[in-house]
Design brief:
Largest sheet: 7 strands, mixed
Radius of gyration: 18 Å
Shape: globular
Distance between the termini: 29 Å
Number of helices: 11
Strand order of the largest sheet: 4-3-1-2-9-10-11
Number of strands: 11
CATH topology of the largest domain: Rossmann fold
Strand content: 15-25%
Length: 274
């Protein structure tokens, strides 16, 4: 029933969430927006990120989105509260670093979180640690350049492996046994991260929990489509459509059309490119 599930990120990281939504809700239409004109969000001022998130939301609503997934940890931390205040009737699902399950599953009492600076410095992350960490030690690490490596398709390259070794070694030396992937780009590096971290460290990807929350919202509002219906998936980007086509096929097997978007500053929204 209703329109598509709207999903957005600054780039292809949100495809790790989109993939899980499609797996759990195969009958649902989706509309994915990659704001690649402004990637990465991580180093940008919070107010700027809020403006982009609001403009993308206006576009998704203009296309009939019935629920909007902010499939970006940085945008969720910077803009989710603002979006809910600005669009009070719209159901939003955001990302948050999975501190709670990491704390619940640790055997050593030491967990690690890798994320962007905006996520780790945000109020949301601080509240999560205060609420759930208790006596568990939560170590954090920013990973500059890692988003760009994923966007470039360097999932298994030696450059990526060396970068991860540099980022993870301090936490591994400290004895973490849980590692929270606090950016939606990072699950695409899971194989390489697992090789670097070793078998004693469990990786935690929040995407399955996000998809379950989307399903709960659809059920609560009577918006879920009937099982067996054919789903339509639409991908859009404010960047280069050919580049996103290549990325989406490689990362999640999507081979459909990629539509080009441009920013309309007057409307404070994205629009289809003429």
């Amino acid at each position: 029933m209703g329109g598509p599930i709207g999903v957005f990120d600054s780039g292809v990281g949100g495809l790790s969430v989109w993939r899980e939504i499609v797996r759990q809700l195969p009958e649902e239409d989706t509309l994915y927006v990659a704001d690649q004109a402004h990637i990465p969000y991580g180093p940008r001022p919070l107010e700027e990120i809020r403006g982009y998130a609001e403009g993308i939301t206006r576009f998704l609503l203009s296309q009939g989105a019935k629920v909007i997934v902010v499939a970006c940890n940085t945008a969720s931390g910077a803009a989710l509260t603002h979006l809910r205040q600005t669009f009070p009737t719209v159901p939003f699902v955001g990302m948050e670093p999975a501190v709670k399950p990491a704390v619940e599953h640790t055997q050593r009492g030491i967990v690690g979180v890798i994320a962007t600076p905006a996520t780790l410095q945000g109020e949301l992350f601080r509240r999560l640690v205060e609420r759930y960490a208790g006596q568990v030690q939560v170590l954090t690490q920013t990973c500059p350049g890692l988003v760009e490596l994923v966007e470039a398709g360097e999932l298994h390259s030696e450059r990526t492996r060396q970068a991860l070794q540099g980022f993870l070694q301090p936490m591994l030396s400290a004895g973490i046994d849980q590692l929270v992937l606090g950016c939606t780009h990072y699950p695409f590096l899971s194989e390489t991260i697992a090789e670097v971290a070793g078998p004693g460290v469990q990786l935690i990807d929040p995407a399955p929990a996000v998809a379950r929350q989307v399903a709960r919202i659809l059920d609560a509002r009577g918006l879920r489509r009937q099982a067996g219906q054919a789903a339509r998936h639409t991908f859009c980007t404010s960047g280069n459509p050919q580049a996103l086509a290549h990325q989406a096929q490689r990362l999640v097997g999507y081979t459909g059309e990629i539509k080009a978007l441009i920013w309309d500053e007057a409307q404070r929204s994205l629009q289809f490119k003429a």
